[in-house]
Design a protein that fits this description.
heterodimer; A: 246 residues; 9-stranded mixed beta sheet; B: alpha/beta; 9 helices; 18 strands
Amino acid sequence: MKILVCISHVPDTTSKINFTDGDTKFDTNGVQFVINPNDEFGLTRAMWFKEKQGATVHVANVGGPETEPTLRKALAIGADEAIRVNTAATDGYSVAKQLANVVKDGGYDLVIGGRESIDYNGGMVPGMISKLTGANFVNTCINLEIEGENVTAIREIDGGKETLKTTLPLVVGGQKGLVEESDLRIPNMRGIMQARSKPLHVKEAVEASAETQSVTFEKPAPKGAVKLVDSVDELVNLLHNEAKVI
Amino acid sequence: MSILVYTESEEGKFKKIAFEAVSYAKGIADMMGTSVTAVSVNGGDSAQLGAYGASKVLEVSNDKLKEFNAEAYADMIAQAAKKEEAKVVVLTSSANCKFMAPLVAVNLEAGYVPNVTELPTGTAPFKVKHSVFTNKAFSNTEITTDVKVIGLAKNAFGVKENDTNVNTESFSPSLSDDDFSVNVLSVDKATDKVTIADAEIVVSGGRGLKGPENWGMLEELAATLGAATACSKPVSDMGWRPHSEHVGQTGKPVASNLYIAIGISGAIQHLAGINSSKVKVVINNDPEAPFFKAADYGIVGDAFEVVPQLTEKLKEFKAQNA
């Protein structure tokens, strides 16, 4: 089985979010970038397939050279090869189109992406790749079993979960549950050394114009100070009469 | 030309988010000088959609669509959009809508923006505001394609009555075997509990509750309020509560009217997940807990004393206001 894991290069979850250039650009100053957490669950599941069932695992990303440390980390975790599509990630559709081109060229059986990236929260790239490549698609996937061409997947739905049956080729939008948090791997020194000599291919982009464009950003209005209360009577009174939520 | 809106239903009844989506679609239709067409699949009484501004309902009655199937539903919505020459397609932020939205967008060669919080700030160019960086910021985004797909954030717009005469029409999409290459084997849904996705009120617990055996008092408070229960990341990581209750950046976002956080210190990742909730209450014995800075109301105190008292007080309040 040949697996491609799509990796988003995102600000780590503790990052303070600021904008520059008249609130038109994300301020990367002092921000640590990491593998998108939802993608990391997918990468770890891909490693499980590699180790337990035999698979080749490639990782791909759309972005400039500054995203390569994130791809190297995926290689250090155990991916065999990395592909960077050399263009800026502008919107979900253009990223999906670049990655769909990687999928078509590479003949992958399984493509795993995160259910959404934690920066733009678009949640559209895996679904769009499936549509552009003609593969089946399962989103918000929390369990994935593959035997030959046959796939059993569990996805999270509002208020529960659903077990689905399908076949390869498949695109998965993964999340926590695909593997446990405790199964995530921290690259060890050997992995980091090996990653240096693993192939990282730079692929030129295909024509793919963006369909959406962020014009300006804004931050939520600052919050007023908390109203500390001494008794539950006062709290119930405020929730009823002031906040009007009960 | 019209605005097309997909209206979700369950067991023949429309969900509240369907009414919110129609209300929002009507808002766009008014801006663009057009009308709202709703798509209803094995749904409720179409006149209900008229009450929120739909003037036409395409009623789909198809046994193969009894269970949600992203590919088939996306094809159906794209066909309805083409038939109605819709310039804007409104979906919601439910798990099913987020599953099919990218498929609808590719089908229609349409730009898609999810988590939209307001009506467009303009329709030419077409610009919408949506939450990004897990509710830590908003982006004003222009959609440059002819057809636009909007994913409306939950509880962002509200339900607005707008009595409209509604015409119904049966609609039979043309579906092929390829639409059914992913099939549902089984559904495991908690039917007796309020879910985080549907809840107006969420009661959430953190490590301060000391162990899973102490969740009874939290569940009693939730039952009294008709609320869903949730938890912080460490709690789900330790297996005290299921992953599906984990609220935060890598868990679920919550956009409830009231969020009560008990024994949760308020890590930045957790706060990002609850930013869209309207009123936040924090109960914590540590007055320095960062969550107090993000809260509207707070009680500094021992959860094991405060929560049972609050439950009793709310029971009294409910009895008096019944």
